[in-house]
Structure formats: structure tokens, C-alpha cells
Design goal:
The chain folds into 3 domains: 66 residues, no CATH class; 37 residues; 163 residues, Endonuclease Chain A (Endonuclease, Chain A, 2-Layer Sandwich), CATH 3.30.870. It has 9 helices and 7 strands; from the N terminus they run H-H-H-H-E-H-E-H-H-E-H-E-E-E-E-H. The chain has a 7-stranded mixed β-sheet with strand order 1-7-6-5-2-3-4, sandwiched between helices. It starts with 11 loop residues before the first helix and ends in a 5-residue tail after the last helix. Keywords: Membrane, Transmembrane, Transmembrane helix. This is Phosphatidylserine/phosphatidylglycerophosphate/ cardiolipin synthase family protein.
Length: 327
């Protein structure tokens, strides 16, 4: 095995050459000066010894200066490394603390741990560095949207969606366990004159109705009150078709003219759905325009505040008592 010759740093060679040159120069000048002032038989010997001594001192001083500079640079580097290590360790412990705290919150909640883990894994995978920038932005937008929804619902007991939602409605209906009570305003479910082009004819309405059929088969009680703003609506063929669909799958349907609603409730009639008496879903339509165009859904709200839920449950019971089956 051949021995490797140690490599000499390129920056080291000029310093050594400089030291030697300075030492030789100072030594030569010392020799000339001492040789000029010392008059003795052995003047050459004394001049040489003195010049050698001075040169040695100069060389040692240069060496000590370099050593001090290197030590100072080393101290500076150690301080930087210490700060970097301290920051790294502190960040690591902070991350561990946050991870532990997050895991503790998940364990303490009723949320399945594997669901949260899958969500984080899939979000990281879909929005990874290899994904196109547009895909990463889409993933970030969706994660931020879900995070905002969870924060609103957790902090205030309510969440608002601008426009007409479909995911909350279908998810709530799909996971209902005991009861689904709904108030359906004709001004929301139908057009200005008929139900033929209304909510129940849309893809969302059909999927929602299909889920309710599954709920009835599971033994969940589903009740709906259609509140009509005009008496001729309930006589229309399109409404009777909607009524027939719903009664045939086991939904308990009643009809109520808005003028027959209890006086205390007439000014606060709203389109809402109460799920399991623990959360309600409410649509807020735009004002009617009177031109035959269905009102737009301006916003959708989900509320889990139990006091407000009890208010909606009491309102439904009063309206249910005032309503009657379709003749």
C-alpha cells in the first residue's frame, strides 16, 4: 500500500514563503548593522549569532501572530457553530413539542388518528417538490380551505361558505344517525312559478334525495316541511311530482303556507336542515326578482352552537305542528 503525501493548502505556501523572506531580510539587515558597529576579532561570528537570534525572534513572532489569528478565527467559527447548533436543537425540540402536542390533541379527540395521518401524508405527497407548481398551489388552497373551515367551526361553532355548498350538505346527510328535519322554502327550492327547474331537479338535489332514501332504510327519521309563498304552488304538477318522490321513499312530508305559519315565526322563516339535533345547515338566498329566475344562494352556513341548534329545533317543532300532509 502506497502512502499518500499530505496535501499542502495553497493558501499556506505564500505565508511560509513570506515568513522565510521576512526572516532572511531581517537577518541580513541585522547582520549588516551589527557587523558595522561591532569591532572585534570575532565580529563576524557575533554578527552572525545576533542576526540569527533576531531572525529567530522575528520568525517566532510571525508564527505567534498567525497562531493568534487562527485561534481568533476558530473562536469565531465555534461561536457561529454554537449558535447554529443551539438554533437547530431549539427548533428540533420545538418541532417535537408541536408534534407531540398535535398528536396529543388528536388522541384526546374522537377523530381517528389514521384519518388525520392519511390527510397529512396525501397532502404532502400531492403537493411535493416533484409536483407542478399549479398542482402545489391547488393542494395548498384546498388544505388552507379545510383548515379555515375547521378553525371557524372549532372556534365559533359556525362556518360560512360563500355561495351554494354541496360537500357539507352531502357529508352531513350521509353521516346522520337518528333524525333529519328540514324546512324547504319554495322561494329556494323552486323557480318563480314552478318546481320543474328547481333544486330537486338538479344533480345535487337528486344525490341528496338518494342519500335520504338510504337513511330511511337504516331507520333514520326524515321529515320535511315545504313552506309555500303562494297557494297555487302546491297544486302544480311539478311540486306534486317532487312530493311523490319523497313520500314514496319514506320521507314524512308536510306542507305549510307561509301565511299560516305562527305569527312569531313569519318574519324569520328560513331554509334549514337539522341533523341529529346537533348541527344545522342553512341556505341564505338572494331576494326574489320577480322575473322567473330562481334566486341565487348567496351563502351557506353550518352551525354547531347548541343554543342556536335548540332554537332551530323548537322552530321546526312549531312549524311541524302548524303544517299538514298534502291533500
Amino acid at each position: 500500500m502506497t502512502e499518500r503525501t499530505p496535501k499542502v493548502s495553497p493558501a499556506l505556501v505564500p505565508r511560509i514563503v513570506r515568513k522565510i523572506l521576512v526572516t532572511v531580510l531581517v537577518g541580513g539587515m541585522s547582520y549588516l548593522v551589527t557587523n558595522a558597529f561591532i569591532s572585534d576579532d570575532n565580529d563576524d561570528l557575533w554578527s552572525l549569532l545576533l542576526a540569527t537570534f533576531i531572525s529567530g525572534v522575528i520568525f517566532v513572532v510571525q508564527f505567534l501572530v498567525d497562531v493568534d489569528a487562527q485561534l481568533d478565527a476558530l473562536r469565531q467559527e465555534q461561536r457561529v457553530q454554537h449558535r447554529s447548533t443551539h438554533t437547530l436543537v431549539a427548533d428540533g425540540f420545538a418541532t417535537i413539542h408541536r408534534s407531540g402536542e398535535l398528536y396529543g390533541l388528536i388522541e384526546a379527540s374522537a377523530m381517528p388518528t389514521d384519518v388525520v395521518t392519511r390527510f397529512a401524508h396525501n397532502a404532502a405527497k400531492a403537493g411535493g417538490e416533484d409536483a407542478p407548481e399549479l398542482v402545489r398551489k391547488l393542494v395548498h388552497h384546498e388544505v388552507e380551505r379545510v383548515s379555515r373551515f375547521l378553525k371557524e367551526l372549532g372556534d365559533t361553532g359556525r362556518a360560512i361558505y360563500e355561495g351554494e355548498d354541496r360537500e357539507w350538505l352531502l357529508a352531513l346527510a350521509l353521516n346522520t344517525q337518528t333524525s333529519l328535519d328540514a324546512i324547504s322554502l319554495s322561494t329556494v327550492d323552486a323557480r318563480e312559478t314552478e318546481f320543474a327547474g328547481g333544486f330537486w331537479m338538479t344533480d345535487l338535489g337528486q344525490r341528496y334525495l338518494k342519500i335520504q332514501r338510504g337513511l330511511v332504510r337504516r331507520g333514520v327519521g326524515v321529515r320535511r316541511i315545504f313552506i309555500m309563498d303562494r297557494s297555487d304552488r302546491q297544486e302544480s304538477e311539478s311540486f306534486r311530482r317532487v312530493w311523490k318522490w319523497q313520500t314514496e321513499i319514506g320521507i314524512d312530508v308536510r306542507v305549510l303556507a307561509d301565511t299560516d305559519a305562527p305569527p312569531t315565526l313569519r318574519g324569520s322563516l328560513s331554509d334549514f336542515i337539522l341533523f341529529d339535533d346537533v348541527i344545522y345547515y342553512e341556505s341564505n338566498p338572494s331576494p326574489q326578482r320577480g322575473d322567473g329566475i330562481a334566486p341565487m344562494i348567496l351563502s351557506t352556513i353550518v352551525v354547531g352552537d347548541q343554543e342556536k341548534v335548540r332554537e332551530r329545533a323548537e322552530r321546526f317543532r312549531e312549524l311541524w305542528g302548524a303544517a299538514s300532509p298534502l291533500a
